[in-house]
Amino acid sequence: MGGYPLVSRLLVRGGRVIDPATGRDGVADVLVEEGRFASIARGIDARDAAVLDAAGMLVFPGFIDLHVHLREPGFEYKESILSGAGAAAAGGFSAVCAMPNTDPVNDHRTVTRWIADRAREIGLARVYPIGAITKGMRGEELSEFGEMKEAGAVAVSDDGRWVANGSVMRRALEYARLFDLPVATHAEDETLSGRGAMNEGAVSTRLGLSAQPPEAESIAIARDLALCELAHGRLHVCHVSTARSVALVREAKARGVRVTAEVTPHHLFLTDEEVSLSAFSTATKVNPPLRSPRDAEALVEGILDGTIDAVATDHAPHHADEKAVDYESAPFGMVGLETAVALFHTRLVATGRVPIARMVELFSSGPARAFSLPGGRLAEGSDADLTIFDPAASTVIDPRSFRSRARNTPFAGVKVTGLAVSTVVGGREIYRRP
Ligand code: DOR
Asked: Which of 24, 183, 185, 233 has the fewest other C-beta atoms within 10 Å?
């Protein structure tokens, strides 16, 4: 087994270090020894260390994405752990959590361990596997949570499908509690959504496409919150996309329910109008679907008031041939690893809507806390994972330059300002912007 090779001493010099977890914001040097943070201070003298010049740059705790599809094992023609972990690094992520809808499904410790080992061997971004809630993600029989946790799983989820049977979900929340694992829910009542191709509203009516009402999500979240309370469990709500969903999570948090929630960049920055504007581009087809402007605004409010804990990409690579079909037939999903941070910075930080420290929190300590992951903070003695960010660098999103094997993004051609220029994992630079 490989592992992350160590650089014995690394000095990240002169950047503005922003770490909301410790309240730090100021110019400092970061000294890394044996893969761990040794010291963060001004004017560190370490003549024998390799130097990363970060003058004019921002230095963050390594960014963490709670929700990606790496497609391996089984769908390597869409993405692999190698290409996905490379895409993560290029997007500024030092760690990602991999959803279990692979083939075979990650519903057993042997699959969990294989994914964790393969990622370590590759040595790019860290990959934390997420085990399936139910065997084969069929929603019937619980997987062995304890064994999967031992093999490296950090959460359980049947992402892509809701656990429709309330009794199974209740038991999942109770069982996961024994191992302190969060249960991540893909909230979608399929009896309401009918797996409709887009959001139900004026736009879907005009376009004549099959559609799912926002209530298919909020009703599912309401049930899961109630079950979480009943089971005294720990719930994580994936890709919250409606105003009502944000309100439900907000109320539940106020009641003391152990719930965390993520939003995606595409639900923040695009609406269902995009299906029409793009002339039915299947790159806009995603589940949950792009919603109304009112919903997107509610997600920003959830970010500002702390209801939302993390920004996650739901990076869902598909082969070009699979997306080159009519809108109704295309698979759901878009890639996000290489655009998320830049889009968030451009749309919400550079515009003054969200403070930079809040952005950092949503990409580091927020996700780390949600899944109890190591990292997410610049603490002396912990693994030296860093994201170095140039707030002034700009580019036009060009899918041809992606490290990901897939190109299915609706953001092609969009100008962004603020880019990850270096990603460091365990004291080793795994990505440097060319
Ligand atoms: O758009 C999506 N794609 N939503 C999901 O829930 C699953 C994902 C996938 O696996 O492609």
From this structure: 24
